């Protein structure tokens, strides 16, 4: 069966940091995770815009926690979409970091082969870049096997690197992974991190915000082939100026880059990364074999 933008819907969770996607693509739906601050619960991007979350975070001593959508939330979305579309491709953050993809699978169980649920092994704007890439496949026409082959290549060649002001939020949320080795004695040292094999991993440490941005550009260059097309997204947690500075530095270093609009890091990812986080997701375009 051919999958295209007319007969196939794309579902993703809110950690993709594409809150405006459904308004821009009729076949997209976003299912929000939730963030809990004290005794209050908010749906990511629905009840709580990113900017408001960081103001709330600064004003409360409570440590925010997050939770995945229920299987029922996914099942309801799939049911509504399958009244109008023949197929749904559902793309979600790494199962190493969240149970969201398992909720999606449970929600899809009654729809059989009409719903394809994918653990992308990504998070944040790397997941966003995955969603954008799958939509481009649909625009050209593909099938389920073609989507799966593309996703496998994307996992091999795409990446995300980011800098946080402190590892404390990752530590509190239990998402620190191998980056635990960097905890302690950071002071003005900024850790550079990556998501690899679905987990947060340390890359290196630098001193100061300026060096952190330079290191992100260097890592992007080291992880993508020179002289090849490149697509990227820059995202930030309450650090818009630094994000724009990073985007400008990427354009200067890689003039061939196609940069998606700078986006925010929403409440759910931001609860674990913390304010001041800046990062970039990237993939060669077209993807190598």
UniProtKB/TrEMBL annotation:
The keyword Zinc-finger does not apply. Keywords: Lipid-binding. Pfam families: DegV (PF02645). One of its GO terms (molecular function) is lipid binding. NCBIfam families: DegV. This is DegV family protein. It comes from uncultured Thermoleophilia bacterium. The lineage of its organism: Bacteria, Bacillati, Actinomycetota, Thermoleophilia, environmental samples.
